[in-house]
Amino acid sequence: MFETVLVANRGEIAVRVIRTLRALGIRSVAVYSDADAGARHVREADTAVRIGPAAAAESYLSVERLLDAAARSGAQAVHPGYGFLAENASFARACAGAGLAFIGPPAEAIELMGDKIRAKETVRAAGVPVVPGSVGSGLSDERLVEAAREIGMPVLLKPSAGGGGKGMRLVRDEALLGEEIAAARREARGSFGDDTLLVERWVDRPRHIEIQVLADGHGNVIHLGERECSLQRRHQKIIEEAPSVLLDEATRAAMGEAAVQAARSCGYAGAGTVEFIVPGDDPSSYYFMEMNTRLQVEHPVTELITGLDLVEWQVRVASGEVLGLSQEDVTFSGHAVEARLCAETARVSGDRVDFLPSAGTVLALREPAGEGIRVDSGLSEGGEVGTSYDPMLAKVIAHGPDRATALRRLRAALAGTTVLGVDTNVGFLRRLLAHPDVVSGDLDTGLVDRDAASLVPADVPPEVYAAGALRAQARLSERRTGDATGWADPFSAPSGWRLGGTPAWTPHHFRVPGQAPVTVRVREGEVAVGEAGPAGAKLLPPREDGIALEIDGVTHTFAQAAGPHGTWLARDGDAWHLTPHDPVAAALTGGGGAAHAGALTAPMPGTVTVVKAAVGDEVAAGQSLLVVEAMKMEHVIAAPHAGTVTELDVTAGSTVAMDQVLAVVTPAAPLEDS
What we know:
The protein has 674 residues and is of the alpha+beta class. The chain has 6 domains: 4-103, Rossmann fold (3-Layer(aba) Sandwich), CATH 3.40.50; 116-131 and 207-332, ATP-grasp fold, B domain (D-amino Acid Aminotransferase, Chain A, domain 1, 2-Layer Sandwich), CATH 3.30.470; 132-201, Dna Ligase, domain 1, CATH 3.30.1490; 334-456, ATP-grasp fold, B domain (D-amino Acid Aminotransferase, Chain A, domain 1, 2-Layer Sandwich), CATH 3.30.470; 462-477 and 505-581, Glycoprotein, Type 4 Pilin, CATH 3.30.700; 594-667, CATH 2.40.50.100. Helices cover 26% and strands 32% of the residues. An 8-stranded antiparallel beta sheet has the order 13-12-9-10-11-14-21-19. It has an 8-stranded antiparallel β-barrel with strand order 23-24-25-26-27-28-29-30. It has a 5-stranded parallel beta sheet with strand order 3-2-1-4-5. The longest helix has 17 residues, at 249-265. The N and C termini lie far apart (70 Å).
């Protein structure tokens, strides 16, 4: 067994690996970039080594710096986690060349299964069914189009390298193939440094089911059952569970054996995952998609139903131990469901919802606990969430004796999760878990995208604005001054007092990102939100962890935190950032007016990667003009209407802030007032 292991990763997976190393009595070494100097994984490791600036290419993706950190810390092995270099065969070879054990499969297996084209050919030869698709590597755009026509629309474009849904494009219209191939190549090149694509038949309403395998270096391979990963958004998993309600015992056994054969076909060792696409109306017709040659994000659900620590087995196998388990030794208990917490902001536009990367300082944090609840997290109060890395912050996992109990526990756990200072998807996940089709188990990979708009509240609850206004009113009262005699100027207090005896209203103006400004009027014992009439309201005694108010006899409780630009309030997994709004200043600058209807702003902090227009260009409504990227996510900025590009303030490579004006499209004809 190793004495010291370097964890070549960050965030929640680094914290997760460190936890098992500590349980095994192994000294852990964290690495960190300048952006992560105060991160949780750095604090929890036995020692930590700085490896460079925030840019991943100069820190977490730098093989040279990681090997240097291993040498300086006396590490004997390297655990890559997932993401970054976890599936990089060159890194695995470099570790071996430096005398370090790579806690993962052999480089040859990574290389083979990392090439989706070769992987399909290899497992097909081993008798594993594969999705019909293109044959061969290095296909030109023209050949990809021809293959798509031969397969028949719709088709799925996929990068041969990498994973995680990056660069994947579902194409239903043959006329769009050229544009989508170009976009898929661009994203694949940016994410993996390789723009090789393949094309596969798209299975409508498919289920995504994967099998966890475990193998040693002595020829022993077993599977640990399946995980249902069909709840995805743009090919990115967000909810996973084990076992799947779709499979019967015969299909489960057949898929498990197919996964074992796939692992054997590439000489696998360690923990790995074989992913299958399964028609929802015919689960016996499953097809191999790919093999992930690393630990999966969703591995905790398998751990909870099997009682096995997959990181521990990764370490043991890498140290040369024989797998002390046979297939008959693997038993399953209960049901487990995992939700991925990400730093993101939901923006609704008609039936479409865009989930944009969020950033900020964690001002307040409350993570759930209780029976059957596990949290894998890289968060800590005061920590910075930037746009340099993947937006996933934590995972909340629930286990129960049956699926209904696990779902109920997870919904309650998410309701008890509070992250203030950064927008997250916690509330969205909680509502998704209550979706009737999720509760019944009638899942498919398109469910989330179809119903996302119904899972994002259109409006901010009025009690949120009322809480902000009453809190602001109380703070004004606290700041009122008095002289040595105790006398205070009544005109300095927001009491609403005025000649004539009728109390006046004190207005408070707020804005929540993505919403129109709202004015809240307050006077003693009453509050009026927006155009609504007055309601009886009062603040209740202060609470250590939040704020409580009573409106018309109903008590509302929120977690709260003060930030540099306003107040954060949270309840039941949802959070709102209330910022002061100056209606006079907004009127003077034309904010929100028709004159600015053509201004295109950055929906998230990030980098402009593509500019498709120039000043003076005539553009059509909906035409793509720019692409902004953050946290490995591309967002297309399109013309809001037909017109002329009259301003363009960025170039490819420009770093932009959220809401920064990027371009202005002057309409071809005056816009009518809505």
